């Protein structure tokens, strides 16, 4: 169980714009009339220490499309964790060179865990965050890839313990069915993770509506909550979440 808790605002980028997808569906996109750097500065001014940034184009297509925006955000001074489009070690280095403090790795964390474990060793467990984003299907937590558009055979109960045993420190886990829905977080998912890999500092993502959900996640023992749509639409104030 985590001894500290961090509220982490999120910025999802597509075509250089701030957007949100519903349940990872690129056809169900909501755009927001705010520049990425302006939004990042707003979160910094509200007291955020960390910011989560996703290159949605890169996540789906396997090539960075929003790196300049990520670089500009990192210059604000927030500690940024970013992912989407990491397909090789050169991509990891490019994100570090862009000023990112932690690199989040999704598709390869599912498809090639041995490779990602090598990066944990090479770059340090504080700097690499495997992302095991899950859907409950057929009695197991399934782990799709490529911006959640491609199905894989690996499951959460296989990979979470493997990363923990290999020395991972952090794990990002989104319930895809809750993502962008404002339906509340899936506390059962994080209870499962607490059993599967109790030493991992888990970042919960998907479904957070309000400060009550943030408090519930902290009580569930996760290390942090990634907050997207609820902040963008004013349903949750970042100051409230940070006060948790």
UniProtKB/TrEMBL annotation:
Lineage top rank: taxon: Bacteria
Broad EC category: isomerase
Pathway it works in: Amino-acid biosynthesis; L-histidine biosynthesis; L-histidine from 5-phospho-alpha-D-ribose 1-diphosphate: step 4/9
GO terms for MF: 1-(5-phosphoribosyl)-5-[(5-phosphoribosylamino)methylideneamino]imidazole-4-carboxamide isomerase activity
Keywords: Amino-acid biosynthesis, Cytoplasm, Histidine biosynthesis, Isomerase
One biological process term in Gene Ontology: L-tryptophan biosynthetic process
GO cellular component terms given for this protein: cytoplasm
InterPro entries to which the protein is assigned, alphabetical: Aldolase_TIM, His_biosynth, HisA/PriA, Isoase_HisA-like, RibuloseP-bd_barrel
Short name of one Pfam family: His_biosynth
Protein localization: Cytoplasm
CDD domains cross-referenced by the UniProt entry: HisA
Catalytic activity: 1-(5-phospho-beta-D-ribosyl)-5-[(5-phospho-beta-D-ribosylamino)methylideneamino]imidazole-4-carboxamide = 5-[(5-phospho-1-deoxy-D-ribulos-1-ylimino)methylamino]-1-(5-phospho-beta-D-ribosyl)imidazole-4-carboxamide
The keyword Acetylation appears for this protein: no
Cytoplasm as UniProt keyword: yes
Enzyme Commission numbers on file: 5.3.1.16
Primary residence: cytoplasm
Active site: 12, 133
Record-stated family: Belongs to the HisA/HisF family.
Listed name of the protein: 1-(5-phosphoribosyl)-5-[(5-phosphoribosylamino)methylideneamino] imidazole-4-carboxamide isomerase
Organism this protein belongs to: Mizugakiibacter sediminis
């Amino acid at each position: 169980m985590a001894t500290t808790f961090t509220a982490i605002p999120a910025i999802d980028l597509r075509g250089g714009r701030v957007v949100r997808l519903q349940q990872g569906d690129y056809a169900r996109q909501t755009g927001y009339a705010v520049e990425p750097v302006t939004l990042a500065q707003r979160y910094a001014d509200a007291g955020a220490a960390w910011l989560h940034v996703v290159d949605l184009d890169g996540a789906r297509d396997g090539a960075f499309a929003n790196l300049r925006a990520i670089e500009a955000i990192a210059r604000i001074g927030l500690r940024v964790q970013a992912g989407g489009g990491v397909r090789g070690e050169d991509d990891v280095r490019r994100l570090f060179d862009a000023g990112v403090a932690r690199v989040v790795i999704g598709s390869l964390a599912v498809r090639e865990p041995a490779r990602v474990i090598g990066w944990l060793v090479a770059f340090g467990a504080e700097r690499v965050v495997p992302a095991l984003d899950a859907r409950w299907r057929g009695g197991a937590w399934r782990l799709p890839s490529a911006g959640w558009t491609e199905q894989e055979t690996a499951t959460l109960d296989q990979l979470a313990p493997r990363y923990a045993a290999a020395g991972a420190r952090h794990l990002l886990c989104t319930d895809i069915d809750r993502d962008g829905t404002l339906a509340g977080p899936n506390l059962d998912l994080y209870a499962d993770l607490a059993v599967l890999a109790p030493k991992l500092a888990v970042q919960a993502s998907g479904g957070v509506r309000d400060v009550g959900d943030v408090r519930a996640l902290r009580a569930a023992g996760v290390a942090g909550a990634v907050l997207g749509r609820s902040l963008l639409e004013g349903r949750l104030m970042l100051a409230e979440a940070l006060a948790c």
